[in-house]
Structures are given as C-alpha cells and as structure tokens.
Recover the amino acids of this structure.
C-alpha cells in the first residue's frame, strides 16, 4: 500500500512538471556537460518511470510505559 501511495505521489508531482525532491539536481551533478545535459533532463523527466521499494520494520508493539 505504501509503495502505491508514494508512486502515485511522485507521478502527481511529475505530472505538474515539478521536481521538489531534486531528481534533476542529482542528474546534473552526475553529468558534466551541464549546458546540454539540462535540456536532455527536461526532455527525459516527463517520461521517467518510478520504482519504489518500501521496507517497513516494526521495532516494538507501541506500548507506552
């Protein structure tokens, strides 16, 4: 359920053309020709598919002493 909700949120943000998480900044930091690479990123971002892997670990029963 968590994976579906996070994926839906990322798609909604992507659909609005926003990047508040900073995927574009991460992309620019890994590609050295920033003048042309930024244009490439702007073309790629609307079609990116997100893969979300949720790892949930319950550490306690939630009792308060």
């Amino acid at each position: 359920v968590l994976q579906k909700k996070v994926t839906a949120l990322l798609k909604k943000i992507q659909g609005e053309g926003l990047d508040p998480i900073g995927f574009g900044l991460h992309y620019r930091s890994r590609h050295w020709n920033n003048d042309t690479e930024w244009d490439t990123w702007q073309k790629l971002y609307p079609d990116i598919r997100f893969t979300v892997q949720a790892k949930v670990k319950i550490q306690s029963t939630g009792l308060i002493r």
Notes: The helical segments are 2-15, 23-30, 34-44. The mean pLDDT is 85. The first helix runs from residue 2 to 15. Residues 19 and 25 are 9 Å apart (CA to CA).
